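Appendix B. One record, verbatim.
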Amino acid sequence: MWKKSKVTDQTATGQGGPSEAEQEEEKKAGIKKRSKVPGVMITQFIEVLPEGKSTPDFLRKPIALTIQEGKLAIFKANVCGDPKPEVTWGRAKGDMSDTETFQKRYDEATGEYTLEIHRVSGEEADTYKCYAINEYGKAICTAALNVIEVGFKKKKAMEQLEDIGRGRVNQNFVRPCVRPSFVLGSVDPAEFRKLLRKRKGVDKEEAVKEPGEIDERFWEIIMSADRKDYERICAEFGVKDFRVMLKKLSEKKKERQEEQAQYIETINNLKHIDIKGVGIASFEFDLELKDLSSRIFLYKDGVMIPYSDEEEMKHSLKTVGKKLIFSVRDLKAEDAGLYQVDVEEVNLFSTDFKIPTVDFIVKIQEVKAKEREDAMFECVLSQPCPRIKWMGKNATLEEGEKYTITVSEDKLIHRLLIKDCSQLDKGIYSAAAGIKTCSAWLIVEADSDPASHGKKKTRKTTQAGGTGLDLGKLAQEQQEKLAKERQEQIDAANKARAEEERLAREALLAPPLPDTGDGDSGEGGDSGEGKDTGDGKNKSESGSNKSKDGGKSVGEMKDSEKEGDDKKNKKSTDDSDKGKGSSNNGIDPNANGEGDGDSKGRKGRTGPLIPDTVIDPNGQSGTGETKEYTDASGKRSECTRQGPLLKDTVIDPNAQSGTGETEQYTDVSGKRSERTRQGPLLKDTVIDPGVQFVSGLSNVHALIGQPAELMCKLSNDNCEGTWYRDSKKLTADDGHIMSRDGANHKLVINRCQEEDSGKYRFEADGRKTEAMLNVKDPPRFDPDDLSAFSQPVIVKVGNSTTFKLPFVGREPMKIQWYRKGEELLDDNTTKIEKSFTQSRLLLSKCQRKDTGEIKIKLKNEHGTMEAISRLIVLDKPTAPQGPVEVLESTASCIHIKWRAPKDDGGCPVINYNLERQQVGRNTWKKLGDIPGVPEYKDNDVEHGRKYCYRIRVVTEEGVSEMMETDDLTAGTLAFPSSPAPPKVASAFNNCINLTWSTPTDTGESRILGYNLEKRKKGSNLWSPVNPTDEPIQEKKRAVTDVVAGNEYEFRVYAINVSGLSEPSSPSEFIFAKDPKNPPGKVEDLKVADTSYTAISLSWNKPTEEVGVQDEAKGYFIEVRQAECIDWTRCNVTPIILTTFTVKSLKAMAMYWIRVIAINDGGEGVAQDLDNYILAMPPPVRPCFTDNKMKSFMVVRAGNSVRILLNFEASPWPEVTWLKDDVPLLKRVNISNSESSSQLLITSSERSDSGIYTIVVKNLVGQESFSVEVRVTDDPKPPGPVELEENVPGTVTVIWEPSPDEKRDDHLHYSVSKRDSTKGSWSTVADRLFNNKFTACNIMPGREYHFRVYAKNDMGMSAPSESPTWGSERRKDTFVVNMPAYKTCDLRTAPAFLVPLRQHTAPKGYECYMSCAIKGNPKPRVTWYRNNISLNTNTNYLITNICGVCSLLILRVTPKDWGEYNIQIESALGRAESSTKLTVRE
């Protein structure tokens, strides 16, 4: 029976908890807690733990192991707890007293506890527990040990045989293959032949299984399977009786539903396990439980496995509403097996997960395709696989109109065809076969022809290039390899079978081993416990049943007993029953070796006996033949055989046989015995396997009315066979052609009909092969009707038309009509008629826009068919397209050119009709029709006059609307603009090839030619290259008038009818020398430094090889993100240094970087970095980078406090601010960046004073810095000042303290003095912390004044004046006349400091425009695009910060193309600046 291993302590995550008894016991013992580690249960002994103490817990618990026997099993665990817990190990069943097998260790360095189980066997398979106990609690976790047994175990087999004898037979017990050597020591060859004959009958009976004896795994799988899979599952398990199986399945399902009703309300939407993504498999179902606390268990092959709700785990459970999704990640081959989900003890769902052992011989390769083309991926597998999974952009791809999935006949080559590629289809595509995957890019290139954009065109299929592999040949070689391996396996099996037969024959012919037992010891076999309850002469019908039970015999036949004596046979049977050892025919298949035994020295056997096989050499039965032999004790024994005798077979070393040959041998007792053999030796028997199928029939799909062929090949050329269809024999009269070509047999059906479908069978020599013939009737068209339908239909606008196409095919048929890819439905202008044989499309009131492809699509259950036609609706053409190009404008002519109409109405242009009007006049002059060339030269013009033209298109369907030109002036001098600087195409010692482009402004006339000039480097003289009267007609020139080794620059003039343009800018200097070879790869490319936004590179110059690669003149650096395929060049012009820093990167993003060397010969081969680079700096311990950081600062109360500290750390650190070692208040603002942190208090108070500490911490370390902040204010002045004279010549100044003295410990005083002889104050004392000061050197006759100031860290208070000390005459007052000042006017008019500049932005990128302005008062700013205000447009980000005005476009589109201007205005004036934005595709 398919058993699940029981885990006694179900503590794995999601796998339930302890039993009710254990729960009750734990309630008595203490408080049960759950650990943070899944699968650990903690019991706390006391309610409140002392401070600093804790219960034991597991930091790492032991994990379940599945190991092969004979290996070393190791369980490891780490525990924690205070006090340190004691760790012990135990097991659910059995003891661990064997110290050689179970060894426990502890590593003090790592704190790891280890249990080692040496040379594991099946007896050690159990659930092991790890206990961690201290005085406050205990922690328990479990781990299962599963042992994989290898080879045959004799002891186990004998135990199972004893169980059979005692009637304790497990219905799923499979009898091991017991070798003959187990019983050879107890019987002679003749007796062993009887055992073989009896054993053969037993094996044959065991081979026939009843439905109730089917493997339990079969029922687990089929009860959760769909009905369509029943046949496949039965074939896998060898179940043939469907009727009995279905009856029993119905009973089991009913029982299962009754069990499930205890715990669940509903279960539905069962989806079996399948590989969903790369390395992930999952199965799901909807479940509604009656009790939400019910436990859910997950088993694999009967072993319970833990799971988690975290998707990163190996096994996980995700719950979405009622849906349960089980996932298995990181798939490996050992993950295959039977997965079962149980609620409590009831099974809910079983699914069998099979992982094919297949790999990719050829993986899919990158494919490049153009738009509207088809792209194909293909791969080759190592094993045949009927279907693999194709994925695109993480979505599974299915067969349909967009994708076609094909498989070769040998099921080795798999292909994915992507039809009608577009830009949306590009991306990564992958193929998954089992757990093996491969992926490649599909690159879709844009259509190079803009005129055909969006139009259908002829498609072609693009495959991966560059592999150069013949997939068909590879698949054929792999198929041959697999066939060879299968044949080798068959040969090895046949060889092993032949070797076993040889060993069996040798065992039959080997002499019997003498018995060394003494009759009571029972040696030579397993001892049985039998006692003599009879007369010791148990008689049997067919021979002697002997047992090894204590050396006592089960039965014995006397010489006088003859065959047919029913009474004596009956008595023998009765006596045998008393002895518990004999049964019918002398052999009890359930006997366990217990028998009576009054006869001593006779051999006994344990276990079931095998019936004898005896053959009479004359083919006649010899009944009652008695044979005598002497055993080890010297006593003679007799044995009477029933049935024909078998010749003794003796192997002669000389390969000769004789009749009546006598062989002598001596037994262990020293007595000699002889045996005479009768007849010749038997020859080895070779069994002819008969006729085999070399290749069987294969399923065939054929179209109705088409031929079909079935063929197979036999191993014999002379064997006839019979063909059947649906079990009915086929004959040549049935319209079938049956032929045979040697070993090949073929059945041909010339014209298949629906009744020919069915199962075909070919039988030959008792063997058969079957295959299905499926006759399909898909939609089909008659070739003539299809050819007529494919012809374009032409109709005039407003008229009606009809499309009709007959068809044949099996009903029901789905008919769809399409116009330009869109399905048509019945409406006012469209009507679709359908019948069984044809369909018609009626289009009324056709318009020009209806022109396009008309397609009919037919679909039934057998296939799909399409037919395409074209509808052309004729109408008047549209007006010609502008703008009009002036090719020439002189005093005598105006030559103009325009573009053909966008739509010619379905007819070619015949003529263009022109009219002309002279500006200022009201009349139009008809110039007539000109041929269908969109160009006209008007020679009837007057110099200086302006003219306007009207142009119409003329076709067979009518005349178009007119196009009117702008005013064109005849004879105005309009010089062309300067051409672009010439470009050097190539340079040689004697020639330099130049190219240039047409000037942007041709001066409204045709360019007649170009003049080219050159100048040698270092010279100021330009010399002409071509004669001035012979302009260069082409836009290129080969300059041969050069000297090798000199350096030249060139410029070019454009010439039109008005004259020469200004010269172009000079070209780059170029040496006149032969071209160089491109340089090689740069060497030693490495990363010098990294940061979050930049990566620094360094490399060495490439080596020079003469004639192969020359010196590098510069380098380009290219970068791309890991998820992108396009490289971006970092520098526009080559750099000459061998170092470069790539900037503006995204933090923590992955980048690929390469360096390309370049010289005059072109670009070299790119050198890539070996691995991708992360945009992040190397790990750096936090440190502060400011050399002079202030550790003390004083802030005036009410002002802001700002502390900015710069640091460096990698990775980004965690920044923490503290005030006096306490977290900050909410009113304090902290702002952090990558390399700095700022503390800001917008309005400080005196309470904000304190020590502020910043702690910068990351994975590498941490650093801190403290700043003392003192928030204070200007002190208040001291109180009244008094003067005293205690000592002549001195004055003591005494004052009252300042009110701020008590709350400012840094407050002190300063005293200043001024006498009557001096006009200035001088400080006589400072930093006084008391309220008294004595001034010396007081001169009599002078007046003294004293001032006392209060000072602190912020500043100084107002003075407190003292009374006058002494007396002095007064002087006249000095008066100063101050001049009057005029107020300065600071107002200025608006103006631009930096105007806007021209911008060219790629499509999809951002564009940033900015300018600088001034003006007082501040001017008002308005942005415009094409004279439309943008200030209220949310698509643009407009800012004005400190006079810098900016406009930001996040994603530039062609709609943003145009002229942008900015206006600033105030009361003093107005200013404007404009620019032009060009969007580059």
